[in-house]
Amino acid sequence: MALKFSEAIEAEFGKICGRYPQKEAALLPALYLAQREFGHLSNEALRYVAQRLDLPPARVYGVATFYTMYNKEPVGKYLIQVCTNICCSLMGGDHVFHYISKKLGIKEGETTTDNKFTLMRVECLGACGNAPVMQINDKYYENLTKEKVDRIIASLE
Amino acid sequence: MMNEAKILTANWEKENSQSIEVYQASGGYDAARKALGTEPEKVSQEVLDAGLRGRGGAGFPAGRKWTFMPKGTDRPKYLCVNADEGEPGTFKDREIMRRDPHMLIEGIIIACWAMGANTAFIYVRGEFSGPADITEKAIAEAYEKGHLGKGIFGTGFDLDVFVHRGAGAYVCGEETALIESLEGHRGNPRIRPPFPPQRGVFDMPTTVNNVETIASVPYIITKGAEAYRRFGTEKSAGTKLFCISGHVNNPGVYELPLGYPLMGLINDVAGGMINGMELKAVIPGGSSTPVLKADECANVNLDYESLQQAGSMLGSGAVIVMAQGTCMVKVLEILAHFYAHESCGQCTPCREGTGWMAQILTRIHKGQASLEDIDLLYDLAVNIEGRTVCPLADAAAMPVKSFVSKFREEFEEHVEKKGCPLSNPFPVLWK
C-alpha cells in the first residue's frame, strides 16, 4: 500500500509549509514528520516526501543522507546515542559506550534481536558540563554513572 | 566582581524562569517597547556603542553587522538566530533557551526592528528538542500577549518568529550553511560574496546572530551602552557565558565579565581540579581553538585580545580543562575524527585532509605510525587551512598544529613505544 500521512501529521505538515516562502524549505521538518509516521526513512518514504514537496527524489535523498538524525534504516524502539566526543570522553564517555554495548550485547550500529535497543556513538551533544551524556530518542541523560545507566535502561519498557 | 555581572543569567535561578509571567515581573519586554519607540538606526547605534561582539565565536561587532542590512528596500528581510550549538565544549545557548527563552525573544524583537526584518527563524540543532520545545512554547506565549504577530505593542510593526530544527550537522553552525539548511538543502556553505545581508535566506537580505548575542541586547537597550560597558574590557565589552567542562569539580555555565582571569575561572568559579589533580592543558574557546599548556594559562584573561595574544582564541567561550595524565594524542585523535565526520565534503582539501589527519592520528595512537607521520600530519593541517569555502578546515587544522607543536614529545613517544604509554588515556575513572 502506498504511504500516506495520517490526519494528525497531515495537519502538522500543512502548518509547517505555511512558515516558509518557498516550499522546499519545509523539507527538513517534513522528513521529521515522515520519520515519526513511518518509523524510518525508507526509499518509499523519501519518494513520498519528494512528491508532497514537488522535489526530485534524488534531492530529498541527498538531504536525508546528509543529516545524521534521519534514520535510513530501521532502528530499535529506543535509539541510544552515547557521546564520545572530547568533553564526554574526558569524563568516561567511551566507558559508557562499552558498558552499554556489553550490557545489551550489541556493537555500534546494531539493534537487539527484540528490536528494543539500537546503540550508536554520537558527536558532541552540547551538554558538556554534565558529561558523560547520552541521548535516548529525544531525551538527554546526563552525569551518567554505571548505576544511573542501569536504572535508565531498566526503566525503558 | 563575578557576582554583580548578571545580565544573561539574571533570571536563571527563579522558579518558572522560562515563563512569560516571571520574565515580565522583572521588567521583561520593556526594552522591546522602548526600542520600538526609537528610530531603528539609534537602536543599532546603541548596540554598536555598547561594544557587543558576536558570541558565536567570530567576535564581530553586532551593531555593525546590523547596519550591513540594506535600507529603503521592499525586499523582505530576515533574522536567523544561530542556535545550532555544536562546537565541542559549548553548551550555553541551550541554557538560555531552557532557562530564559523570553530574553532571547525580546532580543529578536529589538534586532528585527533595528534591521527592518519582519520574520525571524531560530535555527536550533535537532538534538536540542527539549530546548526547542521550551522556546516554541515561549513564542506562543509572546504571540498571545501581542508581543509578536501583527502590530506589536500597538505599533505598525509586524514580526513572526519560528523555530526551525536542524537534523544533526555541525557545519550548519556556519552561517551560510545554516542558510542553506533552512532552505531545505544539504548544509554546504556558500562562497562569499554575496554576503547574507545582500543575498541570504530565500535570496533575501539576512543577518545571522548567535543566541547569546541576541539575548544580550535587551539589557543594552534598557540600561544603555555605558551600563553594558561597565563590564568587561575596553575592546571586549560586557559579560559572556563561559562553559567550563573536563577535569574540574564544578563544570557548568558561568556568566563572567570579559577579561576574567582564566585560572580564576578554573580554580575559584569551577571549584578547582578534580581530586586535586595537576592542570595539564586547556582548550580555551571550543574544540577548534589552539590548546594552551598549563604554564601558558597563568596570566591569560578571558577576552578576545588576551587570548589572541596567548596564541589562541576566545571562540565560543568553551573552556575544556585537562589534567595531568590525559593523553594528548588521544584527545587530538577524537577531535580529528569529529572534524572528518562533520566535513560537508564539498571542498577537497577539507574532505580528504580531515580524513587523512584522523587516520594518521589513529595510527599514531595505536603505535602503527612512523616519526615521519607526525610531520605529515602537521603538513596536512598547514595545507588545508585557508583553502576552503568555510572555516571548518581551519577549525580542524588549528588543534592539530597546536597539539603537535606543544606536545610533540608525546606523539614521538607513541611512535617509539609502539602505542599509548598510558593504560587509560584519561585520568578520571568512570564509575
Short description:
With 157 residues, chain A is an alpha+beta fold. Chain A is built from 7 helices and 4 strands; from the N terminus they run ααααβααβββα.
Description of the molecule:
The complex is a heterodimer of chains A (157) and B (431). Chain A is built from 7 helices and 4 strands. Chain A is elongated, with a radius of gyration of 18 Å. In chain A, strand 3 and strand 4 form a beta hairpin. Chain A has helices spanning 7-17, 27-38, 43-52, 57-66, 86-90, 93-104, 146-155, and strands at residues 78-83, 117-122, 134-136, 139-141. Chain A has a 4-stranded mixed beta sheet with strand order 2-1-3-4, with helices on one face. In chain B, 58% of the residues are buried. In chain B, helix 2 (30-36) packs parallel to helix 6 (101-115) and helix 2 (30-36) packs across helix 10. In chain B, strands 6-5-11-8-9 form a 5-stranded mixed beta sheet, covered by helices on one side. A 4-stranded parallel beta sheet of chain B has the order 3-2-1-4, sandwiched between helices. The model of chain B has no long low-confidence stretch (mean pLDDT 97). In chain B, strand 8 and strand 9 (292-293) form a beta hairpin. At the A-B interface, helix 2, helix 4, helix 5 and helix 6 of A face strand 3, strand 5, strand 11 and helix 14 of B.
Question: What layout of secondary structure does this protein have?
Answer:
The complex is a heterodimer of chains A (157) and B (431).
Chain A: H1 7-17, H2 27-38, H3 43-52, H4 57-66, E1 78-83, H5 86-90, H6 93-104, E2 117-122, E3 134-136, E4 139-141, H7 146-155
Parallel strand pairs in A: 1-2
Antiparallel strand pairs in A: 1-3, 3-4
Chain B: H1 20-25, H2 30-36, H3 40-50, H4 62-67, E1 78-83, H5 93-99, H6 101-115, E2 119-124, H7 129-144, E3 160-165, H8 175-182, E4 206-210, H9 211-215, H10 217-223, H11 225-229, E5 239-246, E6 252-257, E7 260-261, H12 262-269, E8 279-283, E9 292-293, E10 301-302, H13 304-309, E11 318-323, H14 328-342, H15 348-366, H16 371-384, H17 392-406, H18 408-416
Parallel strand pairs in B: 1-2, 1-4, 2-3, 5-11
Antiparallel strand pairs in B: 5-6, 7-10, 8-9, 8-11
